[in-house]
Amino acid sequence: MRLSASSICFMELPIEQAIAKIAGLGFEGIDIWSAHEGCPHLDNVAKWLGPTGLKDLLTRHKLKLFSFSVYAGGFAQYAELLGGVGGGVAVQGSPGPCKPEELTVRMKQYMEELKPLADLAEKHNSFVAVENHGDALLNTLDSLKAFVDLNRSPRIGVALAPYHLQGLKVAIPEAIRVCGKQLRFFYAWQRQDGDKQLPGVGPTDMTDWIGALKEIRYAGFVNPFTHSHPGTDIMTANLKIAREYILDRFKTINPEIPSSKG
């Protein structure tokens, strides 16, 4: 079990302080956001730090780069930077929705559209993970199945967001199993209001989620997430709860592994 946190959770802080905060909470990895909701972090990295500066900063805080979230700007804009840091996952959304009877044809078209990004990911030792989202092509369980069935590139995969699937009453363990080896990013993120989106803060029991991740041998980081912005102090306290909750659920299904809380 490896845990990462998203820099947008501390978007009010400079990227240097956000990295220090995430590392200080005990997370092993970081997901750095581009300008969604005005988050300045990735653009400031590109402008001021560059790949060498970012690598040095992460090394200083003993933090690994898991991903860039590039909902704003797109992967192509940040591909060279991601590769320069050593590669990672680039998380983005998919196009708008289609009618159910058009799903297979539209998904085949989308896979063709992703080929240049797959080539770019290959060049820069990276992966592109497409997030399921409401009112998008990748949204329902059927669309996840179509995506996985049609995807032939090892550089393309899924960023699974349970928040959106819960709104459709989809069983999250089933969705995890559908993604299988194509799961590249996992949000520990529940469909609740405000801070309750975070694990352990909201009411969702994620034990079965963690169990399904173990079942498919998910090798990436688990990323607790919320779109709430309660301020640095409250977010710090809530992410601490979220981290300890996930580790506790992991310990529940793996009692033979010593606890790594702290």
Index terms:
single chain, 262 residues, alpha/beta, TIM Barrel, eight-stranded parallel sheet, globular
What's this model, at a glance?
This protein is of the alpha/beta class. It has helices at residues 15-24, 41-60, 75-84, 103-123, 141-150, 162-166, 172-179, 207-215, 232-253; strands spanning 4-6, 29-33, 64-69, 89-92, 127-131, 156-160, 183-188, 222-224.
In percent, how much strand structure appears in the residues?
A: 5-15%
Give me the secondary-structure category.
alpha/beta
Helical proportion, percent range:
40-55%
Q: Tell me the series of helices and strands, N- to C-terminal.
A: EHEHEHEHEHEHHEHEH
Description:
It is a single chain. This protein has helices at 15-24, 41-60, 75-84, 103-123, 141-150, 162-166, 172-179, 207-215, 232-253; strands spanning 4-6, 29-33, 64-69, 89-92, 127-131, 156-160, 183-188, 222-224. β3, α3 (75-84) and β4 form a beta-alpha-beta unit. By secondary structure, it is α/β, with parallel strands linked by helices. The protein has one domain (4-253): Divalent-metal-dependent TIM barrel enzymes (TIM Barrel).
